[in-house]
Amino acid sequence: xxxxxxxxxxxxxxxxxxxxxxxxxxxxxxxxxxxxxxxxxxxxxxxxxxxxxxxxxxxxxxxxxxxxxxxxxxxxxxxxxxxxxxxxxxxxxxxxxxxxxxxxxxxxxxxxxxxxxxxxxxxxxxxxxxxxxxxxxxxxxxxxxxxxxxxxxxxxxxxxxxxxxxxxxxxxxxxxxxxxxxxxxxxxxxxxxxxxxxxxxxxxxxxxxxxxxxxxxxxxxxxxxxxxxxxxxx
Length: 234
Description:
The chain has eight helices and twelve strands. A five-stranded parallel beta sheet has the order 2-1-3-4-5, with helices on both faces. A four-stranded antiparallel beta sheet has the order 6-7-8-9, with helices on one face. Strands 10-12-11 form a three-stranded antiparallel beta sheet. The protein is of the alpha/beta class. The protein folds into two domains: about 1-120, Rossmann fold (3-Layer(aba) Sandwich); about 125-225, Arc Repressor Mutant, subunit A. A hairpin with a 3-residue loop joins strand 11 and strand 12. Helix 6 packs across helix 8 (about 195-210).
């Protein structure tokens, strides 16, 4: 998932970015609301984390401006302000959640997962399709079959394979757009070509097809996770 971090404190931003990157997010960081508005005109993000105390335009005004411009991505306000009025203003101006500094990284990650589930109409941290299950909280993938134990058959996924799989599951049974999938895999500081996406899709196919799942290419659009003929319905 691609995340926009808007934070003017370099040290704080570096720590947050490191923690989010380790958790599998493709993180792009900007230090001002003006820069955030600029990049969101041309780039697509799955979620944003915005500090209130930004120079010039603050985070509340930025959130309001993003909503005015039609951006529907979930927004989590992250700030040292803990007054009730601040929290109310943040939510009223379009934020989806509000978190006070100092904070613990596991809670931030849990809140981000909840916001992403809500935005994708998912109701659980465990995503499933047919025999496939992805536990986004524990970052474990498995295949559940009649012959497997309670934990299922572990499915080993690399970091980018996980990102692709999670995106396919969040979109299933609808197709996933290839361009958005490419953006979910990388930020500004890393480059990945459309052909590289094909590599990860190919790897996933080799791991899924023995279990009755396939990734179908949708010409001119992207990919869709499907059950192979004869496989039980999800």
